[in-house]
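Notes to self after the Tuesday call (sharing in case useful).
The group wants a holo model before anyone commits to mutagenesis around the pocket. I volunteered. Ligand is alpha-D-galactopyranose. Logging inputs and output together so the record is complete.
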Amino acid sequence: MGAALDAQTVSGENPAAEALVREQYNHISPENLLKWTEVHPSPGTYRFTLPDAFVEFGEANDMQLYGHVLVWHQQTPEWVFQDDAGDPITADALWERLEDHISQVAGRYGGRIKYWDVVNEALRDDGALRDSPWRTILGDDYVAEIFALADKLLPDSLLVYNDYSLVVPAKRASAIELILDMRERGIRVDAVGMQGHYNLRYPQPSDVDAALTEFAAAGIDVLFTELDLSVLPSEWEIQGADLDDTEEYAERLDPYRTCLPQEMSDTIAAHWRGLFEVFIKQADNIEAITFWGVSDAQSWLNNWPIEGRTNYPLLFNRDLSAKTALEAVIDTAKP
Ligand code: GLA
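Result:
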């Protein structure tokens, strides 16, 4: 069971969260610390203070380490794809940059980081290959070629293809095809990462169950890499011409600013219970489950897709006390 850690937690500035992580988890992921913009912000500049602290924290506490992320279309600086004049670079030049990046960043830790997200979000929601500078410059087979490179450079880490919405059948089918095609060509892909940014409406536990069954049938191990559960309404759910831009509209969008009603807390606990019943049932095919943050206070879902709301997506409250949901989760794991 894992949590994604932020800069404050790994650098000792949030001792209470750090203690909770030690007590509750044995697997950690660096929320933003190893993304390209953070670790390699300009050509030749690497910043390892926080990643090193992340790795040392995990090792000091006997935790399994997850590396996130080597290739993604977001949080990657524009210079990566450009020459000095700002024009797109050639495929050869981009391969050289990527090989340098993977060697410096992931190579620094070797097998100490057990898993790496090698490619994140290469597929669109309809299952087609996403357009991105990686694809434009390297060509349509870039995912397979990047995994082959990662295998060469990271022989002691497990290589993961990570994406969201893999509960959606069309997208999942493409992910399975992508992974099996690589394996048929002798390219190592060790597991799939299901991000798991869920909400109370979708997916239902049965959708997650179906996804896990299909991955198991295809022989693909699963990690839940970024699990959280948004409990807030989306804009389209409360839209009404008469309400737009009024205080009532703002309140409906952000209904639990001051507290979470008991009834809502029970609904959330029941949803987590349903998900964990599935996880327990499918445990043989799940290598790790990582929550995307430690407490609700730190979650990105307070600011996305709308800024400044009060969301309750994790198992620990803002004051680090356990939610009712935690009991429900633990309950599912009892024999
Ligand atoms: C994606 C990325 C994560 C994170 C979330 C939002 O899922 O993989 O690193 O940025 O979006 O926080």
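Two things stood out.
The pocket of alpha-D-galactopyranose is lined by residues 68, 120, 164, 195, 226, 300 (CB under 6 Å).
The chain has one domain: 2-333.
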